[in-house]
Design a protein that fits this description.
Structural class: mainly alpha
Protein name: ABC-2 family transporter protein
Organism: Acetatifactor muris
Strand content: under 5%
Number of strands: 0
Number of domains: 1
Mean pLDDT: 86
Keywords: Membrane, Transmembrane, Transmembrane helix
Order of helices and strands: HHHHHHHHHHHHH
Low-confidence stretches: none
Length: 264
């Protein structure tokens, strides 16, 4: 397990992916309102210093910036999560390296280690990117938590957010981590039947899009991934992740039986 994680996490390509994720989050936050705060000093039509301070604290509020940063990542998460890691699982199947691994530690142990290594490393990469964005923007934004500056940032349990804004977003971050892990278990199971890299990368993205269309609102991935929105329900979050894990493990077991029978 340790060697699997080390090999997955210490890839040079991960640096590029982290930079890309943080860059996308910054772009989202910038066009989501942050640019108003960043450009207010050079605005020619606003001369009142009190108005300038208000816009800086409102549009440049750290929690508003964090909330507005996530939309694009939420949409692209299925691709970001699966691309670097599921392809290695596929490669080990196609180049027969898997036989060497299975010969050393047995098939069941290999599958368990490989599954958790993919899920943990993919989750860690996206979680680290979110944390890096939070730290960087935390140094560049306003932290005033007066009601006039933080009202309207979230619509799910807003009273709790106003009382404990940092804890609220810490819980949002934790919910993302759990979601990423559960989704990757699901993605591993779904894509374990495929031999084509493009299919491995694209299929989870397509499935999430379909689930957004057919599931009840509380179970839709785009709702579950944004727990600060009014449509979010904790029960829906738990049910969807439970479905991800159960379906993913069942599909992985089925694909393994097929693979062992056919040998390819």
């Amino acid at each position: 397990m340790r060697s699997e994680l080390k090999r997955a996490l210490l890839k040079k390509s991960n640096i590029i992916l982290i930079v890309a994720v943080v860059g996308l989050m910054i772009i989202n936050a910038y066009y989501g309102g942050w640019r108003t705060a960043l450009k207010i000093d050079s605005a020619q039509d606003i001369q009142n210093i009190d108005d300038i301070i208000f816009y800086k604290k409102y549009y440049g509020n750290m929690y508003r910036v964090w909330e507005s940063s996530y939309y694009m990542i939420q949409a692209l998460a299925p691709v970001i999560l699966v691309a670097p890691y599921l392809s290695t699982y596929l490669l080990e199947k196609t180049n027969r390296f898997r036989y060497f691994c299975v010969g050393r530690k047995g098939n069941l142990k290999y599958i368990i280690h490989k599954t958790f290594a993919i899920a943990l490393s993919g989750t860690a990469l996206l979680a680290f990117s979110e944390m890096l964005f939070a730290v960087v923007t935390g140094l560049l934004t306003q932290h005033d938590t007066a009601l006039e500056f933080v009202q309207g940032i979230v619509s799910f349990k807003e009273d709790y957010f106003i009382e404990n804004p940092m804890l609220y977003f810490a819980l949002v971050f934790i919910s993302h981590i759990i979601y990423y892990f559960g989704f990757l278990i699901f993605a591993i199971g779904v894509t374990s039947f495929f031999k084509n890299k493009i299919a491995v990368i694209v299929t989870p993205f397509i499935i999430v899009g379909v689930l957004d269309m057919v599931l009840p609102t509380a179970l839709q991935p785009n709702v579950v991934m944004r727990p600060y929105q009014g449509a979010f329900r904790i029960s829906g979050y738990c049910v969807l992740i439970g479905i991800y894990v159960i379906v993913g493990l069942i599909l992985l077991m089925v694909s393994e039986k097929i693979y062992q029978k056919r040998g390819n």
